[in-house]
Amino acid sequence: MNKRKHFTPPHGAKVTHIDIKITNAATFHAVVADADFIVVDFSRKEVESGLTGDAIDRLMMLSDSKDHVLKFKSAISFSFNGYEHDKREVYEIPECVQFMRKVTESWPFWMHFVETRHETFLILVLLLCKHQVVERSKGMVGASPDIKSLGVVLHQLFDGLNEMYESYELPNEMNIEITDAVLKTLNLPGVAGT
To answer: Exposed (0-12), middle (13-18) or buried (19+): which is 43, by Cβ within 10 Å?
Structure first.
């Protein structure tokens, strides 16, 4: 199913049309064949029911193909469909937190795939870690992960990254590039000293 998303850009902004393709595990390969970026959408229905099977199946299709692993490095985001009117951030919604943690137990490869230039990786970390809301003003929310919890989550995600890189014999330089991008996003010192 294709949808064309229309929005009114800010004054002076370049207008771009984006074709959004929605798929499930059954049609995944056909839909992503010509994609350069993927948004994995988790529906409110699957989140609240705790049914992670289709979500994990879609994600496994990415990590089960070396071509997809190479093509979608840092080229995935995710969304929680059906929570648009909830004033809480997704990492403040217990069902979203539990869902993402359950998905990550079966598919710990986020670090390779999730884009780090924007806030996607930070939101992922807050979904997976214990955290504390540190600021709430004028509709803006800030949160800080618990350091011990962050260590556990990063260990899990690095293990997934390393497992996948070993499995596909991917270059160590690519692993270092991903690691540095993640650490930069988290404002931590990088492997290459950046």
So the answer is: middle
Return the CA Rg of the chain. 17
Following DSSP, what letter does each residue of 20-35 receive, concatenated? EE---GGGHHHHHTT-
Over range 11-34, report the average pLDDT.
67
Q: What is the DSSP string of 119-144?
A: SHHHHHHHHHS-EEEEEEETTEEEEE
Q: Which two tokens stand for residue 12?
A: 């002076």
Residue type, 192: A
Angle at 38 between CA 90 and CA 182, to 5 degrees: 65
Cβ-defined contacts of 55-59 (< 8 Å, 24+): 55/99, 55/103, 56/103, 56/106, 56/107, 57/25, 57/28, 58/23, 58/24, 58/25, 58/28, 59/103, 59/107, 59/109
* pLDDT one-digit tens code per residue, 26-36: 777 777 778 88
Query: What is the pTM assigned to this prediction?
Result: 0.82
Tell how strand 131-137 and strand 76-81 pair up: unpaired
Q: Can you give the residue ranges of every domain in the chain? A: 2-185
What count of residues does the chain have?
A: 194
Give the N- to C-terminal CA distance of the chain in Å, as an integer. 43
Strands 38-43 and 76-81: what pairing? parallel
Answer yes or no: are the C-beta atoms of 191 and 177 closer than 8 Å: no
Backbone dihedral angles phi then psi of residue 83, each to the nearest 5 degrees = -110, 15
